[in-house]
Structure formats: structure tokens, C-alpha cells
Design goal:
Blueprint lengths: L7 E3 L20 H11 L6 E5 L6 H14 L4 E5 L17 E5 L8 H16 L4 E5 L11 H7 L3 E4 L5 H14 L6 H10 L4 H18 L5 H8 L2
Parallel strand pairs: 2-5, 2-6, 3-4, 4-5
Antiparallel strand pairs: 1-3
């Protein structure tokens, strides 16, 4: 990990939520968004992408997945949780970075110093031709940023909404991820799980991981009674 600039380098599993795969992000309406993120991570297409969506829609999953995908392609990426670590934007060292991902940039709205640091950082990234992915809850104009020049910079690239997957797509994802881990999640069990668990993608995929471990340990199939005993004892 390169500590100059205080950035969290990828791929290193440092407090990142697993799994981090663009394939794990679903929804027919998100196909174009996923394609744009893939191209951005490869250094192709748009140089800047601003994605936004409601809480638990998968913003952080996409942000981290972009970093891991870049790393798999031999490119160096850095991820910053702006809400938790806004100071990391100050005097950032951009050397040897092929992709920068800023999660929850709207946390800087109304902070004069933070907004200026983001403005300056975007200018430097553009000068050095380093792709930038940003996430927020709302589109730039609705985030509450006060610096006009920053709003101009945030509009340099493409802004896209993250669409929440429907129930059928979530069930399909749960069953596919279970199959990838080598066990079967019956349709009825997937429905039961979805009805009684947090519905954001990160939580659902974490549950699949927990069920996998429990199933292996108990040598049991994932029937509704077994799922209930594991998740709701």
C-alpha cells in the first residue's frame, strides 16, 4: 500500500465489503452504467463519471468493484470514502494512479475548504488524464455544493442514476451467487430470505456468504427451516 497521499490502494482487502465484482451488480436498467464503469476502469471512453442513487442502492459496491476490476486488469486504483476521510483529498499524490474513486462526494457540500479541494483535485486529474469515478446520493446540482466552479467541473463527464433492481432480479442474483459458491439455494428459500432480510445488495451478498459457511459446517441443505435457524435464531 502506498501511503503517500493517505489513499487506500486497491486491490488490498482493507475494510472493503466483499464481494467486489461488477458482475454482482444487477438490474437490466443498469447495464449501460456497468459498461461505462468498466470502460472507465480500463482508461477508455469517458474520463469522468458521476453516479448517484438512494441509500443502499449499491453505490459503494460499484465504487469498490471498479477498483478491483482495474486491479485485475493490471491498473493501479485508489479508493477514498469521502464521508469518513475527507482530509485525504488534501495534497493527494496522484503519481502511479490509473483510476481514482471518490465515494460519497456529497459529504463535502457546504464545506468551503472541502469543495475547493475537490475542485482542485478534479482539475489535476484532468491535466494528468487520470479517470475519475464519483458517487453521491443525488446528482451534482441537487447535492448542495456552493462553489460554482466545482459544479462546472462535476458536469464535465457523464452523470447517471443507479436503478434499484427489482425483486425478481434480486432473487436471481441470490441463487446465482449461491451456485457460484457450489451450493443450491431453492427458489422458495431465496424468496423467504429476501422478505426477511435487509434488501441492499451488500447485505444480501454477505448473507449468502454466511449461509455458505453454515451449510458446509452443518452439512445441511438451505431449506426454509435451516435458513430461519441460521439467520433468525
Amino acid at each position: 500500500m502506498n501511503t503517500s497521499g493517505k489513499m487506500q490502494q486497491i486491490p488490498l482487502d482493507l475494510a472493503l465489503n466483499a464481494p467486489h465484482s461488477l458482475d454482482g451488480f444487477i438490474g437490466v436498467e443498469n447495464l449501460l452504467l456497468r459498461a461505462l464503469i468498466t470502460q472507465l476502469a480500463l482508461g477508455r471512453g469517458e474520463a469522468q463519471l458521476f453516479i448517484h442513487g438512494a441509500q443502499n442502492c449499491g453505490k459503494t459496491h460499484l465504487a469498490q468493484a471498479a477498483c478491483f476490476y482495474a486491479g485485475q486488469q493490471g491498473r493501479s486504483a485508489a479508493y477514498i470514502d469521502v464521508k469518513k476521510n475527507p482530509s485525504q483529498l488534501d495534497h493527494m499524490n496522484l503519481s502511479h494512479i490509473d483510476l481514482l474513486v471518490l465515494d460519497d462526494v456529497d459529504a463535502l457540500a457546504g464545506d468551503d475548504q472541502g469543495e475547493f479541494l475537490l475542485f482542485d483535485l478534479i482539475n489535476r486529474l484532468r491535466e494528468q488524464e487520470i479517470p475519475l469515478l464519483m458517487t453521491a446520493s443525488l446528482p451534482p446540482a441537487a447535492c448542495g455544493f456552493q462553489l460554482p466552479d466545482l459544479l462546472s467541473r462535476l458536469g464535465w463527464g457523464i452523470t447517471m442514476l443507479i436503478h434499484a433492481p427489482n425483486e425478481a432480479e434480486k432473487i436471481e442474483l441470490l441463487r446465482r451467487k449461491a451456485q457460484e459458491r457450489g451450493f443450491d439455494l431453492p427458489f422458495e428459500s431465496a424468496v423467504y430470505l429476501l422478505q426477511r432480510s435487509p434488501r441492499d445488495l451488500g447485505s444480501l451478498l454477505k448473507i449468502i456468504q454466511d449461509l455458505d459457511h453454515a451449510s458446509l459446517s452443518a452439512q445441511r441443505k438451505l431449506t426454509i427451516p435451516f435458513v430461519r435457524s441460521v439467520l433468525f435464531p
